[in-house]
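Item description
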Amino acid sequence: MNEIRDLPKVLTSSQDHFLDGPKLAPGITRFWLIRHALVEENARMCMYGAMDVPLCPDSLIAQRPMYRALAERLPKPAHWLVSPLSRTQRTAQAVQEAGYGPAKLTVEPDLIEQNLGSWQGLPYEELPQYLNLAPHPFWAVGATECPPEGESMIDVCARVGRLLDRLAEKYAQQDIVAVTHGGVVRAALAHALRIHAETALHFSVQNLALTILERLDVGWRVVTVNELPGV
């Protein structure tokens, strides 16, 4: 009888974590992860990884509606983080200039893309001769492949997982906007969902796409993945 009497209380507690409406509740540790904008055409022909390559100037103009949509979608106030690479910083600036308004950009080293070591700058068509393992169907290298002097996606997932846990504690119950890279977003999903890096690479993460993660007391929740602003 006691167990039956206590049941409604248990259900009410569980329902506190349900996400049934379009409005996101305040006071939750929430990460707004944005992949940087499209890089310039020549850079897209090679393995640029953690290299510092510029954004495509034409896309900065053509995709202004997407920047405006992001500016309207993102929360205020929020802590803005970027990777050490200029393409994330320029993307963040473009969103702020599109209507969000100025906000301090904090460089977070662990938000950087996978370091491809001595393979960085290598044209994609030359890569197969250097691989020790089969490439991933949706990534240039397999999750366990470690380029010389670089890091594997397994390493990236570990790095990003530690970062998310640290930031979740530092910015508890606050919003964090992080402009980062496709590999990092996939690594964040791997951490939140407790899945292998090889599985996480199956997620599509397009340029300017938004992924929202929440850290609740019961664990991580994925709110949205690869949400394209204004589409």
